[in-house]
Amino acid sequence: MKLHTRITAAACAAILASTALIAQQPLQYPVAKKGDQVDVYHGTKVADPYRWMEDDMSKETAAWVEAENKVTFPYLEAIPYRAQLQARVKQLNDYPKYGSPFHKGPYYFFTKNDGLQDQSVLYIQKGLDGTPEVLIDPNKWEGGGTTRLAGFAPSADAKYAVYGVSKSGSDWTQYKVMELATKKTPSYTTTMLKDRSIDTSVFAALRKMKAFLQPG
């Protein structure tokens, strides 16, 4: 018991020492440009010099993120116990996970993750006794597991469904329409929206651009 306690204490001391050593190393952050954006609210001027960073599609913002990553990742990679921590988290998450099922028309829908999949897979099942089939598997989309299913909503008659595709954590979501009976997504049924959950406004936007029911 005493030997185990001594080993544990020694390990903790080593971790604390290595962490302290890393923390002592100065980080050279990239200098952020300050713009001249000023908004007026009820007669009061409010400066917003970093407004340009909100445009996540610009080359300037992309360059800023890349510069930040060059500071962040070397720091993280230098943490001596990082690999051990990652291995333990991976071990704890290696089990099948199911999302809550929901029902629309003749179909039941649910998500499942086998354990270590980057993204959960959406399944469709016809009736309670039907055989579950893969409807949408985000792991097969481009992006190496960083592209996620950002919402899914069947239409009232369960003939169609709107689903969102979000890449690399972006606020922008590409919404598409799928014919549930055929599992096909016509190329023209697409629109881009930002910070929007799937609701009637998404269906309205698709109808407005004549993409929901017919080619443009």
Can you describe what's shown?
This protein is α+β, with helices and mostly antiparallel strands. It has two domains: 33-78, no CATH class; 97-208, no CATH class. 29% of the residues lie in helices and 27% in strands. It contains four helices and eleven strands, in the order H-E-E-H-H-E-E-E-E-E-E-E-E-E-H. Strands 3, 4, 5, 6 and 7 form a five-stranded antiparallel β-sheet that branches. Strands 8-9-10-11 form a four-stranded antiparallel β-sheet, covered by helices on one side. It has a two-stranded antiparallel sheet with strand order 1-2. Strand 5 (107-113) and strand 6 (121-126) form a beta hairpin.
Please describe the topology of this protein.
Elements: H1 2-24, E1 38-41, E2 44-47, H2 59-77, H3 82-92, E3 97-98, E4 102-104, E5 107-113, E6 121-126, E7 133-136, E8 147-154, E9 160-167, E10 172-179, E11 190-194, H4 200-208
Antiparallel strand pairs: 1-2, 3-5, 4-5, 5-6, 6-7, 8-9, 9-10, 10-11
Rg, rounded, reads 24 Å
Q: Choose one word for the global shape.
A: flat
How many DSSP-defined strands? 11
Number of domains: 2
Number of helices: 4
Low-pLDDT stretches: 209-216
Which structural category fits the helices and strands?
alpha+beta
Mean pLDDT: 83
Largest sheet: 5 strands, antiparallel
Percentage of residues in DSSP E strands:
25-35%
Secondary-structure element string? HEEHHEEEEEEEEEH
End-to-end gap:
74 Å
Helical content band: 25-40%
Characterize this entry briefly.
With 216 residues, the protein is an alpha+beta fold.
Features:
flat, disordered C terminus, alpha+beta, four-stranded antiparallel β-sheet, 216 residues, 4 helices, five-stranded antiparallel β-sheet
